[in-house]
Amino acid sequence: MIHIIRETHDAPASLKLRLARAGGLNRFGEPNFRAVWGWSRLAWIGGKWTDTDAHGNITREIVELREVPKYFPFERWHIERWTPPESYGSPQQWYAQTIERADGIAIPALGPYPRRGEYEHCFTLQGPRGEFISLSPSACEAIVRAVEFARAQSAQQHRAALARREMHRERHWELEADAIFHDASSAFHGAPFTTLL
Known about the structure:
Blueprint: H1 13-23, E1 33-37, E2 42-52, E3 58-69, E4 77-83, H2 91-98, E5 99-102, E6 105-108, E7 118-125, H3 137-152, H4 155-188, H5 193-196
Antiparallel strand pairs: 1-4, 2-3, 4-7, 5-6
Protein backbone atom coordinates (compact mmCIF):
# COMPACT_ATOMS: atom_id res chain seq x y z
CA MET A 1 0.00 0.00 0.00
CA ILE A 2 1.24 3.52 -0.80
CA HIS A 3 1.53 5.87 2.17
CA ILE A 4 1.35 9.57 1.42
CA ILE A 5 3.51 11.78 3.59
CA ARG A 6 1.72 15.04 4.23
CA GLU A 7 3.36 18.35 5.03
CA THR A 8 1.53 19.49 8.15
CA HIS A 9 1.63 22.83 9.95
CA ASP A 10 -0.13 24.36 12.90
CA ALA A 11 -0.96 28.05 13.17
CA PRO A 12 1.12 29.89 15.80
CA ALA A 13 -0.49 30.31 19.24
CA SER A 14 -0.32 34.11 18.93
CA LEU A 15 -2.35 33.98 15.70
CA LYS A 16 -4.91 31.63 17.25
CA LEU A 17 -5.34 34.09 20.09
CA ARG A 18 -5.85 37.01 17.71
CA LEU A 19 -8.43 35.06 15.70
CA ALA A 20 -10.28 34.18 18.91
CA ARG A 21 -10.32 37.85 19.91
CA ALA A 22 -11.48 38.97 16.47
CA GLY A 23 -14.17 36.30 15.99
CA GLY A 24 -15.14 35.35 19.54
CA LEU A 25 -15.71 31.89 21.03
CA ASN A 26 -18.41 29.32 20.37
CA ARG A 27 -20.54 27.63 23.02
CA PHE A 28 -17.78 25.08 23.66
CA GLY A 29 -15.22 27.79 24.44
CA GLU A 30 -13.44 27.23 21.12
CA PRO A 31 -12.69 30.01 18.61
CA ASN A 32 -15.31 30.73 15.95
CA PHE A 33 -12.51 31.13 13.39
CA ARG A 34 -9.29 29.26 12.86
CA ALA A 35 -6.48 29.02 10.32
CA VAL A 36 -5.59 25.53 9.07
CA TRP A 37 -2.96 24.24 6.67
CA GLY A 38 -4.48 22.40 3.68
CA TRP A 39 -2.59 19.13 4.24
CA SER A 40 -3.29 19.28 7.99
CA ARG A 41 -7.08 19.60 7.69
CA LEU A 42 -8.68 16.20 7.32
CA ALA A 43 -12.34 15.24 6.97
CA TRP A 44 -14.19 11.93 7.12
CA ILE A 45 -15.35 10.44 3.84
CA GLY A 46 -17.17 7.13 3.69
CA GLY A 47 -17.39 4.91 0.65
CA LYS A 48 -15.71 2.20 -1.36
CA TRP A 49 -11.95 2.66 -1.55
CA THR A 50 -9.52 0.99 -3.91
CA ASP A 51 -5.99 0.54 -2.57
CA THR A 52 -3.05 -0.01 -4.88
CA ASP A 53 0.59 -0.92 -4.50
CA ALA A 54 3.57 1.13 -5.68
CA HIS A 55 3.08 -0.18 -9.24
CA GLY A 56 -0.62 0.75 -9.41
CA ASN A 57 -1.87 -2.82 -8.97
CA ILE A 58 -5.08 -3.13 -6.98
CA THR A 59 -4.38 -4.74 -3.61
CA ARG A 60 -7.88 -4.49 -2.16
CA GLU A 61 -11.25 -2.80 -2.30
CA ILE A 62 -12.86 -1.92 0.99
CA VAL A 63 -15.91 0.01 2.24
CA GLU A 64 -14.92 2.20 5.17
CA LEU A 65 -14.58 5.69 6.60
CA ARG A 66 -11.27 7.42 5.87
CA GLU A 67 -9.83 10.76 6.78
CA VAL A 68 -8.71 12.64 3.68
CA PRO A 69 -7.53 16.23 3.09
CA LYS A 70 -10.57 18.50 3.12
CA TYR A 71 -9.24 21.47 1.15
CA PHE A 72 -7.39 22.10 -2.05
CA PRO A 73 -4.88 23.55 -2.65
CA PHE A 74 -3.10 21.53 0.01
CA GLU A 75 -0.13 23.91 0.38
CA ARG A 76 -2.16 26.95 1.43
CA TRP A 77 -3.61 28.30 4.64
CA HIS A 78 -7.40 28.19 4.87
CA ILE A 79 -9.62 30.19 7.22
CA GLU A 80 -12.54 28.28 8.70
CA ARG A 81 -15.61 29.40 10.62
CA TRP A 82 -17.35 27.22 13.19
CA THR A 83 -20.88 26.08 12.32
CA PRO A 84 -23.18 24.84 15.12
CA PRO A 85 -24.45 21.23 15.03
CA GLU A 86 -28.08 22.25 14.49
CA SER A 87 -27.06 23.68 11.10
CA TYR A 88 -26.71 20.07 9.94
CA GLY A 89 -30.17 19.06 11.17
CA SER A 90 -30.76 16.32 13.71
CA PRO A 91 -28.57 13.20 13.82
CA GLN A 92 -31.45 11.30 12.21
CA GLN A 93 -31.68 13.82 9.36
CA TRP A 94 -27.89 13.77 8.93
CA TYR A 95 -27.74 10.01 8.53
CA ALA A 96 -30.88 9.91 6.36
CA GLN A 97 -29.25 12.39 3.97
CA THR A 98 -25.69 11.10 4.00
CA ILE A 99 -25.96 7.31 4.19
CA GLU A 100 -24.77 5.57 1.04
CA ARG A 101 -24.67 1.90 0.18
CA ALA A 102 -21.60 0.24 -1.24
CA ASP A 103 -21.48 -3.52 -1.73
CA GLY A 104 -24.57 -3.80 0.47
CA ILE A 105 -22.92 -1.92 3.35
CA ALA A 106 -24.50 1.30 4.65
CA ILE A 107 -21.90 3.94 5.39
CA PRO A 108 -22.19 7.66 6.25
CA ALA A 109 -20.62 9.35 3.19
CA LEU A 110 -19.71 12.46 5.21
CA GLY A 111 -18.70 10.69 8.38
CA PRO A 112 -20.34 10.80 11.79
CA TYR A 113 -22.83 13.49 12.81
CA PRO A 114 -20.94 16.65 13.90
CA ARG A 115 -22.22 16.73 17.51
CA ARG A 116 -19.91 19.63 18.45
CA GLY A 117 -20.48 21.45 15.19
CA GLU A 118 -17.93 21.64 12.43
CA TYR A 119 -15.49 24.12 10.98
CA GLU A 120 -16.36 25.09 7.42
CA HIS A 121 -14.22 26.80 4.81
CA CYS A 122 -14.65 30.53 4.32
CA PHE A 123 -11.41 31.71 2.69
CA THR A 124 -8.18 30.43 1.12
CA LEU A 125 -5.17 32.61 1.81
CA GLN A 126 -3.59 33.06 -1.63
CA GLY A 127 -2.86 35.76 -4.16
CA PRO A 128 -5.03 36.72 -7.14
CA ARG A 129 -3.21 34.23 -9.39
CA GLY A 130 -3.28 31.47 -6.77
CA GLU A 131 0.21 32.16 -5.47
CA PHE A 132 1.22 31.34 -1.90
CA ILE A 133 0.71 34.00 0.76
CA SER A 134 2.21 33.61 4.22
CA LEU A 135 -0.03 33.43 7.24
CA SER A 136 -0.36 36.93 8.64
CA PRO A 137 -2.33 37.99 11.73
CA SER A 138 -3.52 41.22 10.10
CA ALA A 139 -4.77 39.40 6.97
CA CYS A 140 -6.58 36.81 9.09
CA GLU A 141 -8.23 39.47 11.24
CA ALA A 142 -9.36 41.35 8.12
CA ILE A 143 -10.91 38.15 6.73
CA VAL A 144 -12.74 37.49 10.02
CA ARG A 145 -14.10 41.04 10.08
CA ALA A 146 -15.20 40.81 6.43
CA VAL A 147 -16.98 37.48 7.01
CA GLU A 148 -18.71 38.79 10.13
CA PHE A 149 -19.70 42.01 8.33
CA ALA A 150 -21.18 40.01 5.44
CA ARG A 151 -23.11 37.74 7.83
CA ALA A 152 -24.68 40.79 9.48
CA GLN A 153 -26.05 42.09 6.17
CA SER A 154 -29.64 41.38 5.13
CA ALA A 155 -30.51 39.36 2.02
CA GLN A 156 -31.60 42.60 0.35
CA GLN A 157 -28.21 44.18 1.07
CA HIS A 158 -26.47 41.09 -0.36
CA ARG A 159 -28.53 41.31 -3.56
CA ALA A 160 -27.81 45.04 -3.89
CA ALA A 161 -24.06 44.45 -3.43
CA LEU A 162 -24.11 41.72 -6.10
CA ALA A 163 -25.98 44.02 -8.48
CA ARG A 164 -23.42 46.80 -7.89
CA ARG A 165 -20.55 44.38 -8.50
CA GLU A 166 -22.10 43.15 -11.78
CA MET A 167 -22.73 46.73 -12.91
CA HIS A 168 -19.10 47.59 -12.14
CA ARG A 169 -17.88 44.53 -14.09
CA GLU A 170 -20.04 45.45 -17.11
CA ARG A 171 -18.79 49.04 -17.06
CA HIS A 172 -15.17 47.86 -16.75
CA TRP A 173 -15.68 45.49 -19.71
CA GLU A 174 -17.23 48.30 -21.79
CA LEU A 175 -14.26 50.58 -21.07
CA GLU A 176 -11.78 47.85 -22.01
CA ALA A 177 -13.72 47.02 -25.21
CA ASP A 178 -13.85 50.72 -26.16
CA ALA A 179 -10.08 51.01 -25.65
CA ILE A 180 -9.43 47.93 -27.79
CA PHE A 181 -11.68 49.18 -30.59
CA HIS A 182 -10.11 52.62 -30.39
CA ASP A 183 -6.58 51.13 -30.64
CA ALA A 184 -7.63 48.94 -33.59
CA SER A 185 -9.33 51.84 -35.32
CA SER A 186 -6.26 54.06 -34.83
CA ALA A 187 -4.05 51.37 -36.32
CA PHE A 188 -6.17 51.21 -39.49
CA HIS A 189 -6.52 54.98 -39.97
CA GLY A 190 -3.72 56.30 -42.07
CA ALA A 191 -2.66 52.84 -43.26
CA PRO A 192 -2.42 52.50 -47.04
CA PHE A 193 -5.41 50.72 -48.58
CA THR A 194 -3.22 47.87 -49.89
CA THR A 195 -1.99 46.98 -46.38
CA LEU A 196 -5.57 46.48 -45.25
CA LEU A 197 -6.25 43.84 -47.92
